[in-house]
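User: Predict Inosine/xanthosine triphosphatase's structure from this.
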Amino acid sequence: MLYSLKIIVGSKNPVKINAAKYIFAMYFPDHEIDCQGVDAPSNVPDQPIGEDETRIGAQNRVDYCKEHYQAHYYVAMEGGAEQFSYGPATFAYVVIDNALNQVVGRSSNLPLPQVLYNALLKGEELGDVMDKAFNTTNIKQKGGAIGLLTNNHATRESTYTQALTLAMAPFLHSELYSQTN
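Assistant:
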């Protein structure tokens, strides 16, 4: 008999829901995974700029889900961008919460062309900027900027999947992560 594991994702974007479902199915193969996406406000700008704003957006989404839904795990992913000393890049923060622990993880950076980052600073969202630059439609619910800029060798979903995979470590080895000495 399969045990059901309920996951609430703080977004209705199928890319984010699929990444979460994949991770939980991988880590809990003996469970039926009930993974649902819900509208959860980030309370940050639609295009977060900077690591703090991006991380806070993901945490706000998880906190909203915990307040409004009952689940075993709550998951949120927030994409952002920043001008680093070596150039602009986009990345994502992920937050996973199971009511006992909240873990924050981060994806790797994707270097962004300066011209695209400058458009973000003017208030545009990365998905819209990429759609204009590559003549695509709603790329943020497909491969994302990552897919376009890597010729689909990586995608938005694969980046979320990697970040979520790493963020699961404290849940898998809670006894080790709870030690302080």
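The first helix runs from residue 14 to 27.
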